[in-house]
């Protein structure tokens, strides 16, 4: 099968790369290994209710994403997420507010540094310990950053996490999702006359002859002159080893971590927990609990819990749900869990990315993902946009 362009990986990076290429009139094939599109965007649906096992929120500061939604006439599909707060789960089982855990004298003493201290060249731990106080960082904020990035985030470059995007598209709610969760976003973007998706597709081998790339899969041979890799860095590294050894070596240097995300749907009357956006533990085996309370429902409530150990047993998942959310297994209407992988970035990452970009120059091969600008959906879309522009120049 011959396509103008092939995109390997059907997460948000691959989908948006395919979208930008398709908008230029190219016929694009997305080859996705699993049986569904979305990757870390993973909505779990039961009847008319859903919860997110992965990403849950888009913001109106996501400029590249809102542009796609506008071009698809899907602006009105974005639904406002209502306000709710995050709480800290203490070792004694109590839920307390985040501000109540902060030492305000320490905070006030350090906060003025926010005006002079630059994030560049500092880790999350170094930067936020300096502007919020070391004690505050160790006790509360390190847990908060762990919850945001779904990993121990102390070594992350400070300028790559929690970016402030000043520009907002006021046509969209400040933070939003969709009627059927972020799965709608996947449908909206993948629904394009120039895009064909091939699920459950295993790449068996990849070769290049002249200007033509040939991808042998479990079902077909795909041929193209423009190829995009939108898989996690370790997978990209393996896939391109024979055609681009230098790029393979560079992408292999990017660290990653895995987590286990479990979700439950429960009848409202079977949960006693107050309305919450989520829970950050003081010291536990999980990074965070994310609720669906921001999109309330008459009948159900939903909770996702992100565990540090990707190999955690089902019994331990259920025991933690009982301990933290107070819901017994017999009251689960639905229960599901999955493994996610995220890049673990550290100082010096920018130089690595510059090396990858230099190696890509002048080639019809593009690499996108959540390890170029940052982890967020918007970071992925921006990279996909820039790479699609480059390979179609
Ligand atoms: C729990 C969690 C919560 C998050 N919350 C938010 C949030 O609220 N807002 C936000 O902006 N961001 C959030 N993020 C981050 C964001 O969701 C991810 O960084 C982003 O979705 C990654 O997209 P991607 O396409 O780069 O990678 P992935 O989503 O990992 O997609 C890669 C795809 O490649 C496929 N693949 C792998 N190997 C192969 C192969 N050999 N051949 C073909 N295909 C292959 C995978 O199956 C997958 O579909 C969250 C992430 C997680 C895990």
**Order of neighbouring strands in the sheet with most strands:** 8-7-16-17-18-15-19
Secondary structure tally: strands: 20
So what's the CATH class of the domain at 5-41 and 181-254 and 348-391?
Alpha Beta
Largest sheet: 7 strands, mixed
Can you count the helices? 11
List the uncertain runs: none
Please give the CATH architecture of the domain at 5-41 and 181-254 and 348-391: 3-Layer(bba) Sandwich
Shape: globular
- Tell me the span between the first and last alpha carbons: 24 Å
Attached small molecules:
flavin-adenine dinucleotide
Identify the CATH homologous superfamily of the domain at 5-41 and 181-254 and 348-391: FAD/NAD(P)-binding domain
Throw out a few tags for this protein.
Zeta_carotene_desat/Oxidored, alpha/beta, globular, 5-stranded parallel sheet, 393 residues, 11 helices, single chain, FAD/NAD(P)-binding domain, 7-stranded mixed sheet, binds flavin-adenine dinucleotide
